[in-house]
Amino acid sequence: MTLIARTRARAVETLSLDSPHNRNALSAALVGELADALADAGKDPGVRAIVLTHTGNTFSAGADLRDPPPSSRLRSSRGDPHPPEALVALLRQIIELPKPVVARVTGHVRAGGLGLLAACDIAAAATQATFAFTEVRIGVAPAVISLPLLPRTDPRALARYYLTGERFDAAEAKATGLVTTCADDVDTALGPILEGLRRSAPDALAETKRLLTARVLEAFDRDAADLTALSARLFSSPQAREGMTAFLERRDPAWVV
């Protein structure tokens, strides 16, 4: 079963998260397949830029709670690192890719999906898109996704939405710096952006991206190990077990007052 759909038009490679049955959750399989697709596009001289988008009404719901990361040392059956290490590697891969990665969002983005969005160089969202850092509501924290998020977004806004888990809209996402632009017709908004990338010299794009991502990569170098350990510890905690069970059972967790 293919979880990433690939298409190309005029040197722009579109990678679509294509696992709508679980709202494009960041399972080990999806993360691994996306990493492979990004690597292929990054090496292909016929690709000028990459659009990361989705099928279904959700860009990504974040971690796959039916396949959660029980330990930072656990390996999947095919030998790949299990999240959170795999997610850290994927986020860094997007940031280090020598070609611009543009997110196209027409649906909902939750939890770890927001880290994927923040790793992209440019993000366009439809006005109907919604966003939420839901980690605290299941007993964990937005740990590894903070690596691209904290250097790129408004810290006061993050404080509110990290701590409350509230849902917010595309206009608020734009105001906080989470997305670049929002519009009723996201493809119309993307038109001049993609045309600009097509008209830009490949080597110049790569070096300009390096300038823009330097601070983000500093955060990875400094904090990735600690945040990976924090994520693994929280996911294995009693509160997380209760939170994830409550979510899957569609009830409030025990701490709700």
CATH superfamily, by name, is: 2-enoyl-CoA Hydratase, Chain A, domain 1
Structural class: alpha/beta
Proportion in β-strands: 15-25%
Supply the number of structural domains.
Answer: 1
Amino-to-carboxy terminus distance: 42 Å
Main beta sheet: 6 strands, mixed
- Biggest β-sheet: strands ordered side by side in the sheet: 1-2-3-5-7-10
**Helix-strand pattern, N to C?**
EEHEEHEEHEEHHEHEHHH
Helical content class = 40-55%
Low-confidence stretches: 69-81
Q: How many E-type strands? A: 10
* CATH level 1 class label: Alpha Beta
What CATH calls the topology is: 2-enoyl-CoA Hydratase, Chain A, domain 1
Nearest-integer average pLDDT: 93
Query: Which architecture does the CATH hierarchy give at level 2?
Result: Alpha-Beta Complex
- Coarse morphology: globular
How many helix segments?
Answer: 9
What oligomerization state is this entry in? Answer: single chain
Query: Rg to the nearest angstrom?
Result: 17 Å
Account of the protein in words:
The chain is of the alpha/beta class and 257 residues long. The protein has one domain (4-186): 2-enoyl-CoA Hydratase, Chain A, domain 1 (Alpha-Beta Complex), CATH 3.90.226. The protein is 46% helix and 17% strand. The chain is built from 9 helices and 10 strands. It has helices spanning 28-43, 85-96, 112-119, 146-152, 155-164, 170-176, 186-198, 202-235, 238-248; strands spanning 4-9, 12-17, 49-54, 58-60, 101-105, 108-110, 122-126, 130-132, 167-169, 181-183. The strands form 2 sheets. The protein has a 6-stranded mixed sheet, with helices on both faces. The chain is globular and about 55 Å long. The termini are far apart.
